[in-house]
């Protein structure tokens, strides 16, 4: 099991930027693909982005393509989500998660989750 702690959330105006971080501890971080998910108010949790174990491949939800960038630093056991051109509809609790596999695909199971960090985008 890997423990995950998100940080970097906050209140930002539409058009602004935030960078979320997720620090991992426990088992070998580089063994896992990592993902970011979010849960908007009153809605189900949804996929945002994922990155494979080496950081060489990234995947995005259509709603964030071109605006968000996922990356990881295995030496620091940290995964990041750079969010640019934020919109009010990006308001949500953002969670990072560790997959059971090194490579991500749409059927990947995520087994460890952080506690979440709130992102609020004002119009």
Radius of gyration: 13 Å
Q: Could you spell the SSE succession in H and E letters?
A: EEEEEEEEEEE
Distance between the termini: 39 Å
What's the β-strand tally? Answer: 11
Main sheet overview: 7 strands, mixed
Brief summary of the model shown:
This protein has no helices and 11 strands. It has 123 residues and is mainly β. β5 and β6 form a beta hairpin.
Q: Can you walk me through this structure?
A:
The protein is mostly beta strands and 123 residues long. It is built from no helices and eleven strands. The protein has strands at 2-7, 10-13, 18-26, 34-39, 46-51, 58-60, 68-73, 78-83, 92-99, 110-113, 117-122. The strands form two sheets. Strands 2, 4, 5, 6, 9, 10 and 11 form a seven-stranded mixed sheet that branches. The protein is globular.
How would you describe this structure in keywords?
seven-stranded mixed β-sheet; globular
């Amino acid at each position: 099991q890997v423990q995950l702690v998100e940080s970097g959330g906050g209140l930002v105006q539409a058009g602004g930027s935030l960078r979320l971080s997720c620090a991992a501890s426990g088992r070998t971080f580089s063994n896992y693909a990592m993902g970011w998910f979010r849960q908007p108010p009153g809605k189900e949790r949804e996929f945002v982005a994922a990155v494979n174990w080496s950081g060489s491949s990234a995947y995005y939800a259509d709603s964030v393509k071109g605006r968000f960038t996922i990356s990881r630093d295995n030496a620091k056991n940290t995964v990041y989500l750079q969010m640019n051109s934020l919109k009010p509809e990006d308001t949500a609790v953002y969670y990072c998660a560790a997959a059971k596999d090194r490579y991500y695909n749409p059927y990947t199971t995520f087994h460890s989750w952080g506690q979440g960090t709130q992102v609020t985008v004002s119009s």
